[in-house]
Fold this protein.
Amino acid sequence: MTTVRKGQAGPPLPRDEFRRRFLQDFHDPAFEAESAAIERLEAIAWEAYQGGRKAPRTQKAGPGFADPDYDLSIEWRETRDRLIAAQKRWGERGTPSRVLLVCGASRNDGSCPGEMSKTYRLAQQARAVFEQAGIEVDLLDLSRLTSDYGLHIHPCKGCVSTAMPLCHWPCSCYPNHSTRQVGDWMSEIYEKWVSAHGVMLLTPTYWYSAPSPLKLMMDRLVCADGGNPDPTSTHGKKAEEAKAIELKGWDYPKHLKGRVYGVAVHGDVAGIESVRRALCDWLDWMGFVDAGSQSRLDRFIGYYEPYATSHDTLDEDHAVQEEVCNVARAIAHAVEDLRAGKLRQPDAHLTRPRPK
């Protein structure tokens, strides 16, 4: 049996540092009238931190799990049950077709930039195409992470690198109430991905890469590609148990396979091709089916032109607007074929010699 390597994580916070971090939420002088109440809350939070009360509300897992007597997080169970219901609806022929339209830009006019993103404008045009085709659209505007109160996508903790079965589907790393890692949007976002027959990613290029909100979501979707749907099999986050399960043989289930995708990447100087390739490779790996060559787009908008006039440049670039609409049209046609049983992956029946 391989050894679990230890020694990287630092010691628990001392009380003074914990208190300093806790009180950061109450910096506004308006809270001073309730300072005594806040001190009492801090004492409760300190106790939860010391006790490691990650999931303070649990219930026995019950039938259908490897360990029915395991105390399973109620919040995780609720998310998991929604995903099962969403997958069931996804496969029913009589339900409306649905596309998840992801706006990957960080910018919106409700926060510091003071202006909407070009990505959002293009997403609205794509949305109109889908709605005209009779497809329901779920617009996921990731810029809300920069402007909404208490909304987070916490970073992936990398459980999969310890052992694939330690990465649970859906993610069980959050919320962690003992460390105040709460308000995690992914519990809703997972359901959006499961419900979608097609996905369209629209994103700008930031520093030769995807914007951080989009990358956070991508990393947290690792559990959809090989994740373990039964946290009781590893009794939560027991690394030794997860390693033993993987070494016995793991089938790396692709929980979102068979859905259609298209990608539209834009930028103003460089990096658009590498971002487009990375996004397409990622979706290919997860078992998605691309909607054809016109569904994989990268374009410059205002090449080396001022940022201040970039919206004006987009106004005049009718070609790129039409190309983005063509990505949406390709996805719409592919979704129709998918639901009619006409869309096939030529390599779907092949077995990977090195699954991962």
